[in-house]
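pinned: reference chain
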Amino acid sequence: MFLSILNGFFCVAFVLFAYVNLNDGDSWIWVPIYMVAAICCGLAAFHLYYPVIYLIAIAVYLVYAIKLFFEKDGVKDWIMKYNKPSIVESMQATKPYIEKTREFFGLIIISAALAINYFAVNNLHS
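pinned: its structure tokens
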């Protein structure tokens, strides 16, 4: 029951995240990223699990997160060079590191949600 509610929450949240990304210049990548996660979580809310898809998506998302971490003005620079200023003061990405850092954390959240489902499915079948 708790897992269904959690997945319902993630599904709605990821659909909303996809929606707010529609007006971005890179919406062609972020809308599908969030919608894949939303669909996976929405199906899991109804006890339809696809662990292979979770693993593939997690792998792709984590590789992209690593890329964002090490890019110029990425997460590493946000931590080391800019000393971790707030990335949530404004919805506008006014500094070069804000968008990449937000995207990084979005990928981590998606990966965590899919990992929860992956491990939950494995526990159901053990």
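why pinned: The helical segments are 2-20, 27-45, 51-70, 75-80, 96-124. The two ends are 19 Å apart (CA to CA).
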